[in-house]
Amino acid sequence: MPQLGFGVWQVPDDEAAAAVGTALEAGYRSIDTAAVYENETGTGKAIADAGLPREELFVTTKLWNSGNESWGRDNVLREFDASLSRLGLDYVDLYLIHWPRPMRGDYPAIWKAFEEIADSGRAKAVGVSNFQPAHLERLRSESGLVPAVNQIELHPFFSQAELRAVHAEYGIATEAWSPLGQGKELLAAPAVTAAAAKHGRTPAQVVLRWHLQLGNVAIPKSVTPSRIRENLDVFGFELDEADLAALGALDSGKRIGPDPDGFDWN
What we know:
- It is a single chain.
- This protein is α/β, with parallel strands linked by helices.
- It has helices at about 15-25, 40-50, 75-85, 105-120, 135-140, 160-170, 190-200, 205-215, 225-230, 240-250; strands at about 5, 30, 60-65, 95, 125-130, 150-155, 175, 215-220.
- Strands 1-2-3-4-5-6-7-8 form an 8-stranded parallel beta sheet.
């Protein structure tokens, strides 16, 4: 799994093909989508049009386990088949449970279906998104398959040190959604702009470099071709200990997105 990928959250389906096509042309090889983003079709079109060998690509999508009913094997397999069809692929490299919905109590049953998908080879790896330590511990206690990845909100304002430590203990890769935060607040923080000036880089490149040096997988998104290319150009410099400490001190412990312990939808 490449450590830096391209995300398509909030990219309309009719714009996804162009954005993903630009990303693939720029050199990205990891693409992250989801059923609820409603842009799997456009993403799949870009992948097909790029003409790249399938084995060079790493494609992630996610199960949107919505509704009032509890989810089980049949629901999961049906939705997985639908995602593959929209993407136009025979397999994905990573399939994630998008949210745990712990109040429903059905994520262990969903995970059992994910085990079956992994065994079939139609997902090369399976994982979760927005899972808290207690949710991961329950999966570990009830299943022999540890999630390959937990994709979580993670940026310098919310660095998730405790959860990252759990990932390290369990052997789970940490993947950051909204790696640049939201809006311009993070990119305008003095610690970020100072590091950018020091290294002759943009604030976004500094934050993405922070992720890489922490060992996170990051999936920035953009529909602007110049920014798509800029976000990939983060391998030619390194933050020093002072930079890392300054960015680490930005952690406020406050989320941008919902709290996974209470988030539900119908």
